[in-house]
Amino acid sequence: MRMPSPNEFVALVRERMPKQAPKLGLAQWIWLGTGAALALVLIWLAWPRPLPVEAAAVDRGMVRSEVVDEGRTRIHDVFVIATPVGGELQRLELEPGDTVERGQVVATILPADPVLLDARVAAEASAAVAAARAALAAAQADLQLAQSEQERVATLRARDFASQAALDSANAALRAARAAVSARRADLSRAQAAAGAPSARARAPTPVRSPASGRVLRLLQQSETISPAGSALLEVGDPRQLEIVAEFLSQDAVQMQAGAAAEIENWGGDTPIPARVFRIEPYARTKISALGVEEQRVNVILHLDHPEEAPPLGHGYRVDVRVIVSEQADALRVPTGALVRDGRGWAVFVIERGRARLTPITIGQGGDDFRAVASGLRDGQRVVLFPGDDLKDGARVRAR
């Protein structure tokens, strides 16, 4: 039912008034005027008004599809320097950030003192030393006897009172006696070393050298200590080999390809750092998100476009990685905030002659700001941004 306008309402009242109305007093005219004013106010309040909305124009421009996730910087080749032998590690003079060259001595290891022996083991070791000394004395006595025998047989052979075979036998016995003395001396040295004799400790230091040039990333052991073989001492890497590793969701990683453009953000500066996708690992790992949801994450490795101009980032720094999945330079685009669900498809409210018309459209790739339009819109049309639930098809609207 159409509401009458104020002029129509006044004309209607005049038509229904009697031709010869009785004269009214002042109070009656005041009440009549008040009632008419109140009726006009109620009509004005009930009159439908255009709904104020935010509007934007459909135009042509750049449309990008991007994915963003958290990443970490890392140096590609990190060398963990460990002790090659066990011993007494001397205090390291290097500090994190110091520069080292390939082959430079970064640590020194001295032989450690022999371990302390308990009473039973010490007695056994002392007895072994005594037995080795006795065996050495016996071997030396046999050597003296062999030398005397060889000299006597050689004298007799010179006078033709002994055969050549007897001389050869005496020479062989002398050589065997000398070898026996050498063996007994080795046994004595081994027994003394097992017993922890002071003379058995070698004092030659063992240098530990850097396998590559770079900078010290961190010290795993700096103070002097007794270190077993294989203990990690420090990490060395070249900052010029910096790369970024980001863990993307598997459904985002399948949209990427090697060589795609990317940007490194939130590294500590205002200007994004240009980068490229270098490798997408084929293996996904299950991670638990902060909300307790299982997610499949894939490592995506990126290299900086100009590493020589990059800021001085270090190993393990947190950054944000934005990878451009696709982009169109001159595409018909619509703001993402104008899209509404229409069944299983998408639609927008197009402003035509002051009314909002629900128009189904087909969209393509896009990002958080714009989506490409495949069909349903044309360049220059105005659409409603962020339409609320109270906006219906055909409603009168007014762009702010």
Report on the structure:
- With 400 residues, the chain is of the alpha+beta class.
- It has 5 domains: 6-46; 51-61 and 330-399, conserved putative lor/sdh protein from methanococcus maripaludis s2 fold, CATH 2.40.420.20; 66-74 and 239-328, Efflux pump adaptor protein, beta barrel domain (Elongation Factor Tu (Ef-tu), domain 3, Beta Barrel), CATH 2.40.30.170; 81-112 and 205-236, Beta Barrel (OB fold (Dihydrolipoamide Acetyltransferase, E2P)); 119-200.
- It has 5 helices and 21 strands.
- A 6-stranded antiparallel barrel has the order 2-11-14-13-12-15.
- Strand 12 (261-265) and strand 13 form a beta hairpin.
- Helix 3 runs antiparallel to helix 4 (164-195).
- The longest helix has 40 residues, at 119-158.
- The radius of gyration is 49 Å and the shape is rod-shaped.
- It starts with 5 loop residues before the first helix and ends with a strand.
- 18% of the residues are buried.
- The mean pLDDT is 86.
CATH architecture of the largest domain: Beta Barrel
Reading side by side through the largest sheet, how are the strands ordered?
2-11-14-13-12-15
- Integer count of domains: 5
Spans where pLDDT lies below 50 across 5 or more residues: none
From the alpha carbons, calculate the radius of gyration and give it in angstroms. 49 Å
Structural class: alpha+beta
Distance between the termini: 29 Å
Helix content: 25-40%
Determine the number of helices (DSSP H or I, runs of at least 4 residues): 5
Total strands: the figure is: 21
The ordered string of helix (H) and strand (E) elements is: HHEEEEEEHHEEEEEHEEEEEEEEEE
Shape: rod-shaped
Q: Could you give me the name of the CATH homologous superfamily of the largest domain?
A: Efflux pump adaptor protein, beta barrel domain
Q: Examine the coordinates and then state which fold CATH places here, giving the name of the CATH topology of the largest domain.
A: Elongation Factor Tu (Ef-tu), domain 3
- Highest-level CATH class of the largest domain: Mainly Beta
Q: Which percent band covers the strand fraction?
A: 35-45%
Please give the largest β-sheet: 6 strands, antiparallel, barrel
Mean pLDDT: 86
